[in-house]
Amino acid sequence: MGEPPGGSKAEGCSPGKPEWPPQGPRPAAAAPANSNPATVLAVVAAKPSSNVGLLADGSVSLTAFIPNDRAFRELAHRATGKWLNTEEKVFNRLVAKLGVDAIESALLYHVVPGASIMATDVLQADGAKLATALPGASITVDVVGRNVPRIILRDLDRNSPNARVNPWQTYINEGNKQVAHGITKVLRPLNLRG
Predict the structure, then answer these.
(1) Cα separations (Å) of 24 from 11, 21, 97, 144, 175?
(2) CA 166 → CA 76, 83, 184, 187, distances in Å?
(3) pTM (predicted TM-score)
(4) What are the residue boundaries of the structural domains of the chain, listed by start?
């Protein structure tokens, strides 16, 4: 499809569609996805001219899909065979194993520039390809289920599970030009295993 869906938060889903995010109390553990900018700042420190710096510039419209800490720990475990228990250890091990350029590419792959995409818009965009900040790379939206829809983001790694948007972690930073949605896996801009 052409441009990614965007605009303001919809008043509600169309008739017959379930509400997104689901209504009702949020689980106590459903704080926003880790919004600690340590990884972004570390990449910007290593590569000052990186477009990753846009994530720290609130004047630029974009949508970020933010993996939770467990997603990064799983990626580090797959890359190194070791479970690491702190964000700093995970970042340092991934940089040592993959390099800062790969981390920069992965971060850019989680960003859709130019629009604040609301989860309600994504529910209406099944099959859409979202162009990311990583040149030439996109993610595909897959909406699964009718009564309780799930938003799955299909990346370019065909051999690993795809990320799901966590319905309890949508609209992070709502009301600003930059909006974020928590996801369950790190999106991968390439097929890691043949």
Answers:
(1) 17, 9, 42, 21, 22
(2) 21, 23, 7, 14
(3) 0.76
(4) 38-183
